[in-house]
From TrEMBL:
The keyword Transcription applies. It holds the Pfam family TetR_N. InterPro entries: Homeodomain-like_sf, HTH_TetR, MT1864/Rv1816-like_C, Tet_transcr_reg_TetR-rel_C_sf. Keywords: DNA-binding, Transcription, Transcription regulation. One of its GO terms (molecular function) is DNA binding. Residues 11-71 form the HTH tetR-type domain. The keyword Nucleotide-binding does not apply. It comes from the Bacteria. This is TetR/AcrR family transcriptional regulator. It comes from Candidatus Agrococcus pullicola. Signal peptide: none annotated. Residues 34-53 bind DNA.
Length: 199
């Protein structure tokens, strides 16, 4: 093996496999993923793919962990100057920009949370949402804050799922809400969770 091939196999092979995996999931869904198929697409043996990821479950778990890391980055970009709704919108934008990752991240039957740092990556992302929702409640309002977190997360996750399924096409949104896109829809829906102002 020459030096450039060695660098490919040990340096960029993992990245190449994950990039191709993203394409396959976008085209055929997670059900269309096989180790052998990816190996053929990337031009290596299936044992080379197995060296990096182990099993198909390991491969999907690594991809999901990467998704949670990307989600954390998206949330961190708005956390300091944003409110809970802003993090919700960042969550939605992430889903729309990374549909393949999003489709795998919340499929526990496909994943091993003890593999490839998946559990830690998912906890990091969730903790960012949780810390932002804490701004809604003060002392003694823990249950209310938890309810807001679940409601906000569920709302944005559901909007993302519907948008990715093609339910919120531009014509439907214009008919229902005027000049709006799915982000506008999410902002309006999210404001329903804001606490009432005093007075």
């Amino acid at each position: 093996m020459n030096a450039s091939a060695d660098a490919y196999h040990h340096g960029s092979l993992r990245r190449s496999i994950l990039d191709r995996l993203e394409q396959v999931i976008a085209e055929r869904g997670a059900a269309g993923v096989t180790i052998r198929g990816l190996a053929t697409d990337v031009g290596v043996s299936h044992t080379a793919v197995g060296h990096h990821f182990g099993t198909r479950t390991g491969l999907l778990s690594a991809f999901a962990a990467e998704g949670f890391d990307l989600l954390s980055e998206a949330l961190l970009r708005v956390r300091d100057e944003g409110e809970f709704l802003d993090l919700g919108i960042a969550y939605l934008r992430f889903a729309l920009e990374h549909p393949a990752h999003f489709s795998v991240m919340f499929e526990p039957k496909l994943l091993d949370y003890d593999a490839h740092g998946l559990r830690e990556a998912s906890r990091r992302a969730f903790s960012l949402l949780q810390s932002s929702s804490d701004d809604f409640g003060g002392d003694g309002e823990r249950e209310s804050t938890a309810a807001i977190l679940v409601a906000g997360w569920g709302m944005m996750h559901g909007i993302a799922q519907l948008a990715l399924a093609g339910v919120f096409d531009e014509g439907t949104l214009r008919e229902a809400m005027g000049n709006a896109d799915v982000i506008d829809l999410a902002r309006r829906a999210g404001r329903l969770l804001e606490p009432p102002t005093a007075g």
